[in-house]
Design a protein that fits this description.
With about 725 residues, the protein is of the alpha/beta class. It contains 25 helices and 24 strands. It has 4 domains: about 190 residues, Rossmann fold; about 120 residues, Rossmann fold (3-Layer(aba) Sandwich), CATH 3.40.50.460; about 200 residues, Rossmann fold (3-Layer(aba) Sandwich); about 120 residues, Phosphofructokinase domain (Rossmann fold, 3-Layer(aba) Sandwich). Helices cover about 45% and strands about 15% of the residues. The structure holds adenosine-5'-diphosphate. Adenosine-5'-diphosphate binds next to helix 5.
Length: about 725
Amino acid sequence: MADKLRIGIMSSGGDAPGMNAAVRAIIKSTLRAGAEIYGIYDGYMGLQHPERGIVKLDSSAARGILSLGGTVLGTARCKEMMTKEGRRRAIHSLLTYEIDRLVCIGGDGSLTGAETLRTEWTEAVQALMADGSLPEDTLEKHPCLSVVGLPGTIDNDLCGSDITIGADTALHRIVEAIDAIFSTAASHQRTFVVEVMGRHCGYLAVMAGLSTGAEWILIPEAPCPDGWEEKMGAALAQGRAVGKRAGMVIIAEGARDIHGKHITSDYVRQVLIDRMGEDTRVTILGHVQRGGSPSAYDRNLSTVLGREAVTLALKEKIEPSVVMGIRGNRPVAVPLMKAVEDTHRAQKACTDGDEAAAFRTRGEHLRRAYDLFKVVNSAGVHGATPNPKRVGIIHCGAPAPGMNMAVRTVSRLLIAKGHEPIAIHGGFDGLINAKLDSLNWMDVSGWASLGGAEIGTAHTVPSGPELYMAARALEDHKIDALIMIGGWSGYSAINCLYQERRDYPAFKVPMICLPASIDNNLPGTDFSIGADTALNVIVSAVDKIKRSAVANRRCFLVEVMGYECGYLAQMSGMASGAERIYLHEQPRVAADLLRDIDDLKEQFAHQGRTVALIINNERANPIYNTGVLRAMFEAEGKGYFDVRQAILGHMQQGGDPTPFDRTLAARLSSYAVERLDQILAEGSNICGFVGSTKDGMRLFEFHDYERLIDDQYRRPRHQWWMDFVSVNEDLV
Ligand code: ADP
């Protein structure tokens, strides 16, 4: 028997960006655990041709692949797996290499294949021993096959995981394309039909719709009722009537009508030409959606899941097989066949035209996003309420990409409920100086994709006489409630108004904060609007910086923002394969730094390292700041490596919001308006902040604020992502 445990790793089915990040994490974690790892090339085809399809891997196989799209292991369809003989050959191949643990990255087909190998294992091994193909003690040595699946499919169509590897990157590609198409469509007043992937799942279409100004989406979960053509034409015509310069329909490739008839993008185009008499073009995005470097989210998702998969695979026995998925931002193992069966149930519900069952099986998240899309992306829903209120919308703090999407969604949802959104321009200074005006539906048109803060923001936290002026302004402008979309200063400001309620009755209106800060340092939420965009900006800059090194022995020191909150440093470091990540949360003394330098010297001198990356949070250590670190690394590393420093600065705050930030902004806004509407109806005056947590959306009240925050270091007391610190440390 092999001295060490052996894991086989493969990718199969359609490739997905992020698969390589998973492969890297799996190779590194396996080797670190003292086990052996074998790459199975070209999916199950590698098991049919083991002589070239199975290769023992060492740490060099994990080098330089984190940022690559596709899969370095290759993938293929393999029809031999559909026959008993082919599967027996696959089992024989595994056992020839004494592999009895398999990590398979793929969709429902690939995972089913792995499960079949597990269930047929005993019978196949007995037969192979009986005919002399395997030694007689094989079954004793390898009584079972342990299977851990990782969900790898850009469609996000695998039940059991909130999101699959590759879906976030695919959304990046789609949304970039739609943003680009919008600009040309608007110039010519054209209508576009954009076809996205998703044979059985409308996730990409819905999230792309929600992230952009598209007006209509067609998805497999919601079969089109009779007469849909007329409704779609009318909706687009209405858009034109209210002043939209471009029309956009997004269609998932598996869209159908209630009779099960497939709807093609060309048919939609013809409908629009016939009904609107408009120049209409079709863009089929196709394989662009699969391509390119994985997003920061996909890299981290794959890294975390890959490491967890190895921990499981090295256990004594896994029965039944599991899929390592993500639920509420935490890795969870779910029974593999349940995930596959639920996936098939959802697919069947789609083909049967059973909308309720399709959405139920997919999870509430998709249904809510679809419903939200239908309201905010329409040409206008003007609701009525017996008790309409004037709701002020204000920013406070630095701009964060996605803030505009939040203002757009909040104001449209308020209008849809019959309330009046009032933009307060330029933060609390704007409130005091009476810079307010009412927002109508089309005022926020085109804001979904815009970075920055259209209504303006400032850091001012009112104090002293400003409190009086702010109270006067709220009364003068008859503001019945306030929604603050912003960062630490915004939360401090609202907390201040809350604390001053006794002296200033004007502050006794309901007030709700939405987290928007690239630092992701706000209480009550796992993610704040803007942080994902900043992360992607950092990661793509670091990719370029690393590539610039080519053949030089070079150590890069990259400083990222975050004040004393290490989220951006930790997550960008993990997504770009940093050798060290310095956080304020994890203080380091000089001896630690010197040890790190010694490690690097050893690696550069004897282990073939050519480039190293250190990510330093801007306030990780006020004394050993980036400049001092540079001097230390330069002095101590002389002769072993050169040092280059990069302080990324304000580029981290800019850029167009990523799809993640856009949909996060939309979902937080929807929840906030829903809760505010209830609060207004009940006549209460809750002051709180909303967040996206592992248990879903939640509203916290300000009387809990001080308990949840570390005021000195401007960050939450508990930071969920600190669990990932050890992930990165294990993988360097
Ligand atoms: P995905 O994993 O993306 O769903 P496929 O459905 O094409 O992709 O499956 C990939 C491969 O997995 C197939 O080519 C086949 O080798 C194997 N496979 C799929 N379904 C089964 C099955 N029911 N039994 C055994 N192997 C299967």
